[in-house]
Amino acid sequence: MATCEMGSVPLTESAWLVDAVAALHGAYEHIHPYMAVALCLAGTAMNAVTVVVLTRPSMLSPINAILCAVAICDMLVMTSVLVFVYHFLISANFR
User: Fold this and answer.
1) What sections of the protein cross the membrane (predicted)?
2) For site-directed labelling of 76, which of 6, 52, 61, 82 has its Cα 20 to 30 A away?
3) Is the pLDDT of residue 22 over 50?
């Protein structure tokens, strides 16, 4: 009986799972940086639209101010992820 150790849980007869995860990783690692850049750019743009909408005079309320702050923080997070992905994953391939 073959077992596979994933974390602290022994999985019986699951060596195929390790092979499947390794194959998925091999296929996904090449497209991940470009997908991350696209998602970060789209997310930053959509959060900017959210900030514009929520700061209109007719939309001013305490809840919308909190939602606006969340959108701004999300833009900062996405911008930092964008810098990380570009520097460590995309430009590293060209060095």
Assistant:
1) 34-54, 66-89
2) 61
3) yes
